[in-house]
Each structure stands twice: as C-alpha cells, then as structure tokens.
Write a structure and sequence with these properties.
Layout: E1 22-26, H1 28-33, H2 41-54, E2 60-67, E3 70-73, H3 79-91, H4 95-108, H5 126-140, E4 152-155, H6 166-172, E5 176-181, H7 185-188, H8 197-211, E6 214-217, H9 220-232, E7 240-242, E8 264-268, H10 277-291, E9 297-301, H11 309-317, H12 319-324, E10 325-328, H13 333-342, E11 346-348, H14 357-365, E12 369-372, H15 375-380, E13 385-387, H16 392-403, H17 417-428, H18 439-442
C-alpha cells in the first residue's frame, strides 16, 4: 500500500501573510475534448476539477497544456470558457432529444425501427482525433510560462505524463507534481487495450512514482494496484490520497419516471473489450432463444471504441441481437439518469475497472445493479448483485429473475464532488490549518 504522509500547511510560514497558492492546472484534455457530446469518466473528472478551481478565488490558477514533455501556457482567463464549452456540449439537446425519442419508441413497440440509434460510420481514427484536438489546443495557447518553486502542477487526466522529462523538469524547478491515477488497466490487463497503450501507461506510472509529490486515486482498489506495482519493482512509493469521485446533479435527484411496456436493462460506457459486452451479447442471444417474445431489451449507452470486433459483429450481424439491443450515444445526464431509473437493472459485466462511475450512479439513483465480481465492485458496490464475469448461466439467471420483479429502490447515500474536493484540498494543504503532505516539497 502506498504510504500517506501529513505535515504542516504550506500556505503560511512563520506568521507571514497568506499568499495565493499558484496551481498549474493541466487542461490539455479539457481543451482537446471539450467539443465531445459524450464525455468519458476522465473527461468528467477534468471538468469537475476545472469548475472547482474556478470557484476558488483564493488560488492563482494557471491553465497549461502538455505536449512533447513540455508545458505550454494557455491564454490567461481561458479556463472558465473551456469549462463552459464542455458543460454546454454535455447538456445541449437538439439531436439528443431526437435520439431519446427514437429510443423510447424502440422500447415501447414491437419490431420498432432503431432509426437514428445505430452508428452509421466507424469512429474517427486516433490520429485524426489527435490532430483535431491539437488544433483546438493551439487556439488557446498564449502568454509565457515560468514555473517557479512553490507551484503545484495538477494533472488529473493522464495527459502528457508518458513523457519521461515532464515531471523531472518540474521537480528540478521546485514545482510539486500532483497527479491522479484512474487505473492501471493497460498494465494489469494489456489484452484489453491498444498495442501501444501498455508502454505509454508504464511510462506514466514509472514517472509519477519517481517524481510525484502526491498521487490522487479514485478508489482503494486503484491504490492497492499502484502500491503492488511499485513494490514488485522496488520503486519509490509517493504519498497517496484516496478520494472517491463525485456525481453530477442529475444522479442525485429522486424522481419517478414513466416505465416502458417492455422490460429493459442498460449498460453505460465506451463499447470496448474490457467491458465484456461480447459475453453479455452472447447471453442476450440465449435469452432471445429461451424467452421468445418475452425477452427483455438491452440498451448500450456509449460510443464504439477500439479492440471490440466481437461486439460489433454481434451488433451488426446477429439478427436476434439486433431486435433486442439498442445503441445510443450523446444523451444528456438527465436522460441517462431517467434511463437507469426505469431499467430492471444496470448491468456492469466488466473484467477490469478502476472506479466504474455508472455503477455508483445507478446505486445512488436506487436502481438495481448486476455487476461483475471484481475488486472495485466488491469495494464500492456491496449492495449490487455480484457475479463472476465469466459465469454465463449465472448472468442469464440473474437477468431472467430481474425481469419478473419490479425495480427496487434501495438508494445509496450520495457521494458529492464537494466531499471529494474537501479531501483533495486537505491533501494539498489548500485549507486553513490543513496538514497536507506537500509542505516539505512546496516550501523549498
């Protein structure tokens, strides 16, 4: 387990006046992906941190971007605009309402067309997405950045951390690197990731273990995996702080939604190999064979990712699956919350997760959850029904059983972003009398 340290507050020394702490906030991902209609979990975390920092006038927040191992300053004052743009893209309606109406129609009617739901084209290639993102970042570049002793570099997105010289250079200038690790999946489960993902992530992890003043993690499971990785390789183990991720307002509301005529289940997340959806779709084919016209529907909320050929073959070519399974992207948080509340259960058969935000959202909404029996679900989703992710008969029986009973409403106590940032502020020493482990690094 990574060690925790506590020391005095870095905000005042020997009775001297309190000086605004300067935070170099890495907004690379916010600038590059702020125009996406379907933010990932990491996108949501970056946006939440941007909103938190904007709300702290006592801090001197400097937005930066990383490229090629170098920090590049973004235009002063651009962070509120970047955050507002990202927030607007995730909440605007229009096309989202049309897709929502088509989905509701597909769940209400037998043999209803799924017009407007299934993707009509392959996702853009990573190199095209990268080029588009860099073009966006370029628009916000400006000013001159001079890191100085006492600064905190805050990166909660993994962006740029694969460059070996980034954190080393900051430490040489007296800057305290604080980074968030979301998971170690490319290292623990490389078979679920792209060919180069493992090498990139290993560069990130080795660099942050060597140079980070503090590591933030989203669960004890992630902390234990990081500690185990460092211990097995005899690497430095920096201080760590566990701070569970917060939920957006739409998932904290308690309201009733109109139920559909046919029972349905829902999964939320990028359609990729580690989500174990090929296994789930095979189970759905068996459900269609065994239950006939009483078979439930399945809604997949999320974009098609990579390394998912088996899933796409089911979705595009298996007629039994096509009749019952609906893909949808670009929903608002309110629409996703309503979809989860009306489902017989949220299904999460993942083979590996660092946190699994949709599971926490569903439990908070009071929706039943059937999830894979993996460490992070055992840690954070104890009230869910946990089943071995390869137990096909167990999953089929659980889904059939859930079809026969109305949705339960055992609401989980909500975990808010306010609670998350109280922990983070304490760890960074940004509150009066906050102990925080950074004093010895920041006050050099």
């Amino acid at each position: 387990m990574l060690k925790r340290t506590r020391a005095g507050s870095p905000n005042s020394t020997n009775g001297s006046p309190r000086v605004a702490k300067r935070i170099l906030f890495d907004a690379t991902r916010l600038a590059m992906r702020g125009r996406t209609n379907s933010p990932t979990g990491i996108d949501r975390v970056v946006l939440a941190y941007a909103r938190w920092l904007i709300s702290r006038p006592d801090l001197d927040v400097v937005p930066v971007a990383t490229w090629g191992g170098k920090l590049m300053p973004l235009r002063p004052g651009c962070l509120p605009g970047l955050a507002a743009r990202a927030q607007a893209m995730s909440t605007e309606t229009g096309v989202k309402d049309l897709k929502w109406a088509a989905l509701r129609n597909a769940l209400e009617m037998d043999n209803a067309p799924d017009w407007g739901l299934r993707p009509s084209a392959k996702p853009a290639k990573p190199e095209r997405k990268l080029a588009d993102g860099l073009e966006t970042v370029w628009l916000f570049l400006g000013g001159k950045l001079e890191p100085r002793a006492g600064d905190i570099y805050l990166n909660v997105s993994h962006s740029g951390l694969e460059a070996p010289d980034l954190l080393a250079g900051l430490v040489e200038q007296g800057v305290a690197p604080v980074v968030m690790v979301h998971d170690l999946i490319p290292l623990t489960h490389p078979e679920f990731c792209g060919p180069s993902a493992g090498e990139r992530h290993e560069g990130r992890v080795r660099g942050l273990l060597k140079y980070a003043a503090l590591v933030l993690v989203n669960s004890s499971t992630t902390a234990e995996e990081l500690g185990r990785y460092a211990s097995q390789r005899s690497l430095r183990q920096p201080p760590v702080e566990v701070a569970l991720l917060g939920l957006e307002e739409a998932f904290l509301c308690d309201r009733a939604d109109r139920t559909t005529r046919r029972p349905y289940f829902v999964t939320v997340g990028t359609i990729e190999a580690r989500k174990n959806l090929a296994f789930l779709l095979t189970a759905w084919r068996r459900l269609a064979e065994d239950m006939g016209p009483k078979a439930p529907h399945l809604v997949l909320v999320g974009r098609r990712g990579w390394e998912n050929e088996a899933v796409i073959d089911h979705l595009d070519r298996a007629s039994a699956v096509r009749k019952l399974v609906h893909e949808i992207t670009d929903l608002t948080d309110e629409q996703v919350a309503a979809l989860i509340r009306g489902a017989r259960a949220l299904l999460a058969p993942s083979l590996a997760e660092g946190f699994d935000l949709p599971v926490i959202e569903a439990l908070t909404l009071g929706a039943p959850v059937i999830a894979s029996d993996i460490p992070v679900h055992r840690e954070l989703a104890r009230t869910a029904q946990l089943i071995d992710p390869l137990d096909g008969l167990g999953w089929i029986e659980a889904i059939q059983s859930a079809c026969d009973r109305p949705p339960r409403r055992p609401r989980r106590p909500a975990y808010s972003w306010d609670e998350h940032f109280k922990i983070v502020a304490q760890a960074l020493g940004l509150e009066a009398e906050a102990p925080g482990p950074l004093r010895q690094v920041v006050n050099v």
